From TrEMBL:
Gene (name only): lolB
Entry keyword set: Cell outer membrane, Chaperone, Lipoprotein, Membrane, Palmitate, Protein transport, Signal, Transport
Keyword Transport among record annotations: yes
Principal place of residence: membrane
InterPro entries given in the database record: LolA/LolB/LppX, OM_lipoprot_LolB
UniProt similarity note: Belongs to the LolB family.
Gene Ontology process terms (BP): protein transport
Biological source species: Neptunicella marina
Origin superkingdom: Bacteria
Protein known as: Outer-membrane lipoprotein LolB
Amino acid sequence: MRILFLLVCIALSACVSKPPLSQQSVNTLAHQKLLHQIQHWQIEGRIAYLEGKEKHSANLTWQQKKNDLELDLRSFIGTSVLHLEQNSNGATLEMDGEQYQDSRAEFLLYNLTGWHIPVSALSAWIKGEIKGNETADFAKQGWLSSLNYAGWNATFSGYRNVNNVPLPHNIILSKQQKRVVIRINQWKIKQ
């Protein structure tokens, strides 16, 4: 019984002594390479789109597999707002029982909803990965804290370890009067 008690105490002390992620650090270059290797992932969370007095929000599921993406937006009661897919053949958006196609997801999303969101860039940015042409700043811990690209300003915060990889859980994009806020509740990294 004493051995069991000691093992439980040791296990609990190991959990307590683990430093919070804000006190951990990573090698920036190695972290970016690791993020680039993550090709299959899924997030669950919320997205808000704000432009002027216009405000929209939805529950979000985004699944990425290499260059293919699936994005589902649902109302707070779970009804589908839209389903967006992008692959090598182009983009398809389903909304209000109708299906629309175009060469790029950004075009479909903007033309049907008025939301100007850089979907292609977000597939890397959501992970805190730079694609190469951005002006980026990194936190003292080594992970991405902000970037600028094509008029978009993005900030990344709330990093938590997912499968031993620091990933952001709060992302804010802004460009002129537009703001996109993504709050990630759950990450799944798939093999």
